Amino acid sequence: MCVDCKKRVRTRVAPSPTGDPHVGTAYIALFNIAFAHVNNGDFILRIEDTDRNRYTAGSEQMIFDALKWLDLGYSEGPDIGGEYGPYRQSERFDLYGKYAKELVEKGGAYYCFCDQERLENLRERQKAMGLPPGYDGHCRSLTKEEIEEKLKAGVPYVIRLKMPYEGETIIHDRLRGDVVFENSKIDDQVLLKADGYPTYHLANIVDDHLMGITHVIRAEEWIPSTPKHIQLYKAFGWEAPEFIHMPLLRNDDRSKISKRKNPVSLNWYKEEGYLKEGLVNFLGLMGYSYGDGKEIFTLQEFKDNFNIDKVTLGGPVFDLVKLGWVNNQHMKMKDLGELTKLTIPFFVNEGYLESENVSEKEFETLKKIVEIEREGAKTLKEIAKNSRFFFVDEFSLPEVTEDMDKKERKSVERLLNSLKDEVGLKSIKLFIEKLEKWEGNEFTAEQAKDLLHSLLDDLQEGPGKIFMPLRAVLTGESKGADLYNVLYVIGKERALKRIKDTVKKYNIEI
Ligand code: GLU
């Protein structure tokens, strides 16, 4: 791919620090990284912080941290430097004014001295006439002398792009083919604002040019800006990069992904306990088919096999159910010790561990818990949440309450009834005897299973009748992990204590 690239391929992601790091930033970074990777190129991070109204302190650091968390690394960026730096637009401020003026000299832009009042009147008039809003070119024809005079008098001005009135601008988008715009319909975009700040359009193309960006891979929402960018490159006499517009991530009603309908902050995904591998894999499935129906892959596999032409434009729906499934696959694939380490903070958050410092022995127990619970959980947080009965030795039996739905009520009733049932009582008694006879404290999962199964043989009753009361006295819950796993994790002593405490507390006559 890219055999026709004469220059070293350089791609970038250029987020604006306006809040929490956005899932779309990671998505776009991933595809830029993969494209640079297969072309032996570079991927860089640039921070576009010229919009001071939307600037949010701390946001930039969160972007660095989130990309690092996801292993979406860059070889140049504000925090690591590089030979095309600085990589933060606020540090490149002087450049933009200089280039804006250069463009005026070249005839591609012009000074506009129209004040707010005139612009508002213009807008009103256009509205009344049913015309689209846009600048009317009033200052395009000012003479050199008129301009000099106004500048001397200190009249505030902006610099605008001089869009041609005729002809077309065509984006040759790799994924979309030619996207054609009529020049007459494109506004004379402000490039430099009255306060000397550049707009996104100017700063973005000046930097892409100076930073040697060869391929701009960004979301499709930027398509309307691209003809302006192409005109800017033309006016400067610079070669434009190749533009590739990725499909937008969408909510399930197909609207653009938004906070109201989907979590969009990368911090949220981290705090929920999604693995970086799971989230990156999921993003790699958005609008992209890896091939052979393969849905689970590592970042390295994705990068090594990447082909930009396999991006599809259908508008991928950001489906948390699918993400949960992908994440579960990665949790099951992950080294158990590593997964356990990652789950520890979530156990602390649930209050099941006092601190993240655990002894070797505790760690071994945690590993057992994680091994069991990762099978059915979507996130690390879920692993921790579902693990309550491994940690909590003192509990109360559930009670039937008003707000329970029918199903829940039934299962609680069954649990409580099993403690009055003759077989249930026998089962508890026999279980205590067997545990007391057991040498040592530990069970392997197999041994725990065998011990429980021996009750079935001895009592010649169905598993429901036998295990339900044991679940009640061991965990106080009507559902949860397999009983043998509970025994395997908590061991004989804790099991006996739990059973005896419950029997005593509820006067269960065995
Ligand atoms: N600063 C823009 C953003 O926030 C960059 C868009 C582009 O990639 O050109 O996404």
Please give a structural write-up.
- The chain is built from 20 helices and 9 strands.
- By secondary structure, the chain is mainly alpha-helical.
- Strand 8, helix 7 and strand 9 form a beta-alpha-beta unit.
- The longest helix is centred in the last third of the chain and has 23 residues.
- It binds glutamic acid.
- The site of glutamic acid (GLU) has 7 residues, from loops.
What brief labels describe this structure?
about 500 residues; mainly alpha; elongated; 9 strands; binds glutamic acid; 20 helices
Q: Average pLDDT, to the nearest integer?
A: 95
**Strand order across the largest sheet:** 3-4-7
Radius of gyration: 32 Å
Total helical elements:
20
Topology:
Layout: E1 10-13, H1 23-38, E2 42-45, H2 59-69, H3 93-106, E3 109-112, H4 116-128, H5 144-152, E4 158-161, E5 168-173, E6 177-182, E7 190-192, H6 200-210, E8 215-219, H7 226-236, E9 242-246, H8 266-272, H9 276-285, H10 299-304, H11 320-333, H12 336-350, H13 360-373, H14 380-385, H15 388-391, H16 406-418, H17 422-437, H18 445-459, H19 463-475, H20 483-505
Parallel strand pairs: 1-2, 8-9
Antiparallel strand pairs: 3-4, 4-7, 5-6
Helix pairs in contact: 6-7, 9-11, 12-13, 13-20, 16-19, 17-18, 17-19, 17-20, 18-20, 19-20
